[in-house]
């Protein structure tokens, strides 16, 4: 019985195998790294959109409360008199379309904060937090402003404030991740013949760095801040 002589790989065959194996591993590694990078970029963009949507929702929810007075039903029924002190004096012009009808007050005021970019980048408002009616307490003044590429929420804001510097402010966006380039509040009044509605348009623009590029996102919302005013 004869044993068959075994032959191994030659040096050339071994080197070719190593080169081909290295190329395959390099291709797989490149695809893996590319997938991870794309996934990270997608997560960063999704986070930016989610953060901006959350901030916009917070502003919408809070601004809608502007001018709320807890004893409104009693006020409407005549058992409580006097102006709603949770509003500012209305300087809206031109005059109302119906003679003898005046609109005394409005729910919120828009200002420009000097530490933020652009005009009308701050809004101040009040609402009856404890539903007690009467005069507003110090903890019932609120606001939002753009400050050094961050959106900040304000509390303990006195009604006398006109430059958005009073009160206590806290950032609700992270400028290490998202840079807010524009926050603008635009008061609007719709004036049909029989009623009037107050609105605030909020324009928001932000940017974030993704894959050595700057991605910009814009959002806009139209918020009704008071019940419709019926003309008589």
From TrEMBL:
Coiled coil (UniProt feature): none
Pfam families attached to this UniProt entry: N_methyl (PF07963)
Organismal lineage: Bacteria, Pseudomonadati, Pseudomonadota, Gammaproteobacteria, Alteromonadales
Record-annotated membrane-spanning stretches: 12-33
Name of this protein: Prepilin-type N-terminal cleavage/methylation domain-containing protein
Keyword list, A-Z: Membrane, Transmembrane, Transmembrane helix
Keyword match Transmembrane helix: yes
Domain of life: Bacteria
């Amino acid at each position: 019985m004869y044993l068959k002589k075994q032959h191994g790989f030659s040096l050339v065959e071994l080197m070719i195998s190593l080169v081909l194996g290295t190329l395959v591993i390099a291709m797989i590694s490149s695809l893996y790294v590319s997938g991870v990078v794309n996934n990270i970029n997608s997560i960063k963009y999704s986070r930016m959109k989610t953060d901006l949507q959350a901030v916009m929702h917070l502003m919408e929810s809070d601004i809608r409360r502007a001018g709320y007075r807890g004893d409104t039903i009693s006020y409407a029924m005549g058992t409580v008199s006097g102006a709603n002190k949770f509003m500012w004096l209305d300087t809206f012009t031109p005059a109302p379309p119906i003679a003898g009808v005046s609109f005394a007050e409005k729910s919120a005021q828009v200002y420009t904060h000097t530490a933020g970019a652009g005009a009308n980048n701050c809004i101040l408002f009040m609402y009856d937090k404890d539903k007690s009616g009467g005069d507003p307490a110090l903890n019932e003044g609120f606001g939002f402003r753009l400050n050094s590429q961050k959106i900040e929420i304000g509390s303990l804001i006195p009604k006398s404030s006109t430059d958005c510097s009073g009160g206590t402010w806290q950032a609700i966006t992270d400028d290490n991740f998202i840079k807010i380039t524009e926050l603008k509040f635009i008061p609007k009044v719709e004036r049909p013949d029989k009623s009037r509605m107050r609105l605030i348009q909020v324009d928001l623009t932000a940017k974030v760095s993704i894959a050595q590029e700057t991605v910009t996102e814009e959002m806009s919302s139209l918020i009704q801040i008071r019940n419709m005013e019926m003309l008589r």
